[in-house]
Design brief:
The complex is a heterodimer.
Chain A (H helix, E strand, L loop, with lengths): L1 H16 L6 H17 L3 H21 L4 H9 L1 H7 L4 H16 L1 H13 L10 H21 L7 H8 L4 H15 L6 H25 L3
Helix pairs in contact in A: 1-6, 2-3, 2-7, 3-7, 3-8, 3-10, 6-8, 6-11, 7-8, 8-9, 8-10, 8-11, 10-11
Chain B lengths: L1 H5 L1 H33 L13 H28 L2 H33 L7 H22 L3 H33 L15 H46 L1
The chains are: A mainly alpha, B mainly alpha.
């Protein structure tokens, strides 16, 4: 437990020390959302109709901006080997790293969602608006972590990671946007939330093993 | 059993006579199926002659699924047994699976134009086939990014298995989405209109022909990959002994 906390804290400290890189995905997300009305027109009905889908597409794209960094630096300097020598299982190490990365890159996006929804002229904006993006971003970062672990040993892996993980984002975009649509139009929770949560749990169950296998040394 | 057939030398000697047989069987089956389909199958009541596209489209769709399954099973065997022949099979099946998915999408699109009045609808099957194509292209791109064959093999195998686990989830989610969003007015693809015998048998010929053709392509690609690896291994040995 102590070791896990140490790894978690180290990730957060490194992210904090990285400075502006911390807010990069959130800024990317906001920028995409602000561009959308300029592209499709500021008509209120149209914008609020498009809001859930655009928010989730922007979330997927924003997550791609920093994904490749999750494991690359640690693999290069040998920090990953050191952590492995501590006796902790690789599955645990990878999932802790991804969750720490999500905390600094994914959570700000989820917290920005109500603001984005207001800008998209959505009907009802409640604190609940955060929930679908909260769950969706965890799933997206976990599958993204699989892509990042597979390409950790490669240079300039960004576009490749995007190609690898985008098909895995399909269920999140479908269920998440559906649920967000429910919430933004003032309805109660739909089936989308249950399915989205199921997806998050499936990603949490499967991705650590894939990441650990990908990062184990020969 | 796997270790018996996994010996590359045994594989090469077994498949040497098998390859021409499979090629001839595939050619005969497909030629018979296509001549039957184009020359002798009557026009369908609603779709007219465009129903003949089915004889390329359906076999391509089914065999592309079989090809992706081949990749997934080979990847699993590679991760468990670490035998390079399993990796050769997965690597060789990928471009064939991609080509078949592409053919399926193109013929489906061309078939959709006269029957639904549009080249593309976001139907559940079309959409999940599109994402299967993306998964395979991602697999090929990932493999080609690695310099060393072993790293490419392992990364590819993991990606292929993650994709295989996700493919049913993607398919389910797209179907769920489809029932919510499908605009009215399109003819449903899922209405199961069972085929009558005059349409069914030529389809069966094409299906089996395509399956055997996949087997022939797979074996041919695997053989050239084994030759390539043997050549590279020999080259590395020579370089070591001279330097």
């Amino acid at each position: 437990m102590k070791g896990i906390l140490a790894i978690f804290r180290r990730e957060l400290v490194l992210a904090w020390a990285g400075g502006s890189g911390l807010f990069l995905p959130a800024a990317f997300f906001a920028g995409t959302i602000f561009l959308a009305p300029l592209g499709v027109g500021a008509e209120p009905g149209l914008l609020s109709r498009l809001a859930p889908g655009l928010i989730f597409v922007a979330l997927c794209l924003a997550s791609l901006t920093t994904l490749e960094r999750i494991f690359q630096a640690d693999l290069e300097v040998g920090a990953l080997d050191q952590q492995r020598l501590s006796g902790l299982s690789m599955e645990l190490i990878t999932v802790v790293k991804v969750l720490a990365h999500w905390l600094v890159s994914g959570l700000p996006i989820a917290l920005l969602t109500p603001v984005a929804a207001v800008f998209m002229r959505a009907d009802t904006v409640t604190p609940m608006t955060i929930l679908p993006v909260f769950l969706g971003s965890i799933t997206i970062f976990l599958w993204g972590g699989v892509g990042a672990s597979l390409t950790a040993g490669l240079r300039r892996s960004g576009p490749l990671v995007a190609l690898l993980v985008l098909p895995l984002f399909v269920p999140v975009v479908i269920f998440g946007a559906e649920e967000l649509n429910h919430i933004l139009t003032g309805q109660t929770f739909g089936a989308g939330l249950t399915l989205l949560a199921a997806n998050t749990l499936a990603a949490l169950a499967i991705s650590p093993f894939a990441m650990a296998l990908a990062l184990k040394l020969e | 059993m796997f270790s018996t057939f996994a010996n590359p030398h045994r594989f090469m000697s077994l498949t040497r006579p098998l390859l021409p047989i499979l090629t001839v069987v595939a050619a005969v089956m497909l030629a018979a199926g296509w001549i039957w389909a184009i020359g002798f199958v009557p026009d369908e009541k609603y779709q007219g002659p465009t129903v003949q596209i089915m004889y390329v489209h359906v076999p391509a769709a089914m065999v592309s699924l079989a090809a992706y399954s081949t990749m997934a099973i080979s990847s699993l065997l590679y991760l468990i047994l670490k035998h390079s022949l399993a990796d050769v099979a997965a690597k060789s099946a990928a471009p064939i699976a991609a080509a078949l998915s592409f053919i399926c999408l193109v013929t489906g699109s061309l078939w959709g134009r006269p029957t639904w009045g549009t080249y593309w609808i976001w139907d559940a099957r079309l959409t999940s086939m599109l994402f299967q194509l993306f998964l395979i292209l991602g697999y090929m791109a990932l493999r080609s990014a690695f310099q060393r064959e072993q790293e490419a093999a392992r990364a590819g195998a993991i990606l292929c298995l993650v994709g295989a686990v996700n493919l049913p989830i993607i398919k389910f989610s797209v179907e769920w989405w489809n029932t919510l969003h499908q605009p009215a007015g399109f003819i449903s693809l899922t209405g199961d209109s069972s085929l009558t015998a005059e349409f069914f048998w030529p389809l069966m010929f094409n299906l089996i022909g395509m399956m055997v053709l996949f087997g022939a392509f797979l074996i041919a690609t695997m053989r050239s990959e084994v030759y390539k690896r043997q050549y590279e291994a020999k080259l590395a040995r020579l370089n070591r002994s001279t330097s």
